[in-house]
């Protein structure tokens, strides 16, 4: 199979159910989701495969990579009647479970956190911000056409998970989060 097809030479690309311009908001939405998946792969590569204390995190992040591909697939679906959506509410519910699990492991915070600390944490913060951008692109798309609303919910929860696991990565590395020193106390303490 050849990688190049020449079918996009005139500025259009194939989606599930037809063709659209390469700068279509649909392409921007699933393209940004693909970009997020690349950054997530980079973050995963920063986890030493032999380091057991990160095995659960690595496994969960690899699962998310698969699901981000599902998000992109649902966003590329021009005609929803062609097949069922892949991203469902139970995936969003599971993200919430993971957020709670990882958050319980980290110390309380009162102020905003700056990206940084360990290398893994920094990479996960990049994932968080790209995820927020992907969510914004999906919101734009949803104003123009029918979408799988669970993709938008998934990306919203996923950015929260990236924030949480970035803090978990710092905690497991024994590195403090970087607080925004001019921040007033804005977060409530966790009830333990």
Automatic annotation (TrEMBL):
Source species: Paenibacillus hodogayensis
Coiled coil found in the keyword field: yes
Pathway(s) per entry: Cofactor biosynthesis; adenosylcobalamin biosynthesis; adenosylcobalamin from cob(II)yrinate a,c-diamide: step 2/7
Keywords attached to this entry: ATP-binding, Cobalamin biosynthesis, Coiled coil, Nucleotide-binding, Transferase
Gene Ontology molecular function terms on file: corrinoid adenosyltransferase activity
Ranges in a coiled coil: 40-67
Reactions catalysed: 2 cob(II)yrinate a,c diamide + reduced [electron-transfer flavoprotein] + 2 ATP = 2 adenosylcob(III)yrinate a,c-diamide + 2 triphosphate + oxidized [electron-transfer flavoprotein] + 3 H(+); 2 cob(II)alamin + reduced [electron-transfer flavoprotein] + 2 ATP = 2 adenosylcob(III)alamin + 2 triphosphate + oxidized [electron-transfer flavoprotein] + 3 H(+)
NCBIfam families: PduO_Nterm
InterPro entries: CblAdoTrfase-like, CblAdoTrfase-like_sf, PduO-typ
Domain Cobalamin adenosyltransferase-like: 3-169
Top class in the EC scheme: transferase
Protein name as annotated: Corrinoid adenosyltransferase
Gene3D superfamilies reported for this sequence: Cobalamin adenosyltransferase-like
Family: Belongs to the Cob(I)alamin adenosyltransferase family.
EC number(s) reported in the record: 2.5.1.17
